[in-house]
Amino acid sequence: MPGSAMMAGCSMASMPISGGEAAAPLAKRGPSRYAAAMAKEAATAPDTRVPDTIGAHVRKLRKRRKMTLERLSELTGVSVSSLSRIENTRLGMTMEKVDLLARAFGVSPEELVSRGLSATEPQPEAAIKAVPQLTVDRARQRRERQDREITTRYLFEDSPRRSLECMACTIQAISIWDSEFLRHPGEKIIYVMAGDAIVYCQDKPPTILEAGDALYMDAYVWHSFVAVNTRPVELLVTYFHGPDSHQGLLETRAFTPEDWATLQAD
How far apart are alpha carbons 266 and 263 in whole angstroms? Predict the structure, then answer.
């Protein structure tokens, strides 16, 4: 977003007067009728500057991501009327709302409340000096996390400029109804390194994957995968979340067979 609070349409008072008259020395000329009319119009024109407020920042972030107030309300749980009042600086924000909005926009809470808007505005391509990335992720330095039936080892976790998330997962054989379903923005690829897996994906029938198989999917629908045949499955999971790292929300929930059948029937 622009660091300045001025909109792209500048005030007419700041526009230079061009044409044949510009050749005459300014000190020897009185203001023309045209110039006087322009000055009067500029003096009485409404102020079109965008206030440099947190509310204005929220509005700019929302419009930049092409979100409606209704969609932002779905992502944050904050009512449409409250979001509108926040954008118009008629309602203050609690730390909880700051955190919810920051997660929805894919920015840090510090960036959201900062009055300097340039941090989230993409720079012109010519102003950016491209520096090729090359990062090595060492196995001995990789951190392992255990969450329910899934052991996850994140690859390139400390590379902030990446637009890909990549992780190696070991998943135990449990009932799909005991697993945690998730959905999030982006596109996902699952590659089976060892074992067999079953994938449940919203609006699709269950899919069995064997060692060496791969699956591509849009990740914004509900999905889950577990090992089958009583043995753990080793997966390499990669998903593309676009240039705005961690944008949107990761949602999780459990399904019963009845819940899933209802969802599939909708």
Answer: 5
Amino acid at 73: S
Cα 153 to Cα 18, 30, 184, 234, 245, distances in angstroms: 64, 75, 19, 11, 19
pLDDT band at 1 (very low <50, low <70, confident <90, very high): very low
Closest listed residue to residue 58, CA positions, set 94, 83, 28: 83
Look up tokens 């992502």; give the residue.
Answer: 75
For residue 67, what are the contacts with CB-CB under 8 A and spacing of at least 6?
75, 104
**b/e sequence 81-106, b meaning 16+ C-beta within 10 Å:** ebbeebbeeeeebeeebbebbbbbbb
SS3 174: coil
Residue listed under structure tokens 């749980």 = 77
User: Strand runs (DSSP E) across 103-243, as ranges?
Assistant: 144-147, 150-155, 164-171, 181-183, 187-194, 197-201, 207-209, 214-218, 223-227, 233-240
At 118, give phi and psi (nearest 5°).
-70, -20
pLDDT in tens, 59-72: 888 888 888 888 88
**Distance separating alpha carbons of residues 11 and 41, to the nearest angstrom:** 10
**Verdict on whether the full-model pTM lies above 0.70:** no
Dihedral (Cα; 103, 108, 113, 115), 10-degree rounding: -130
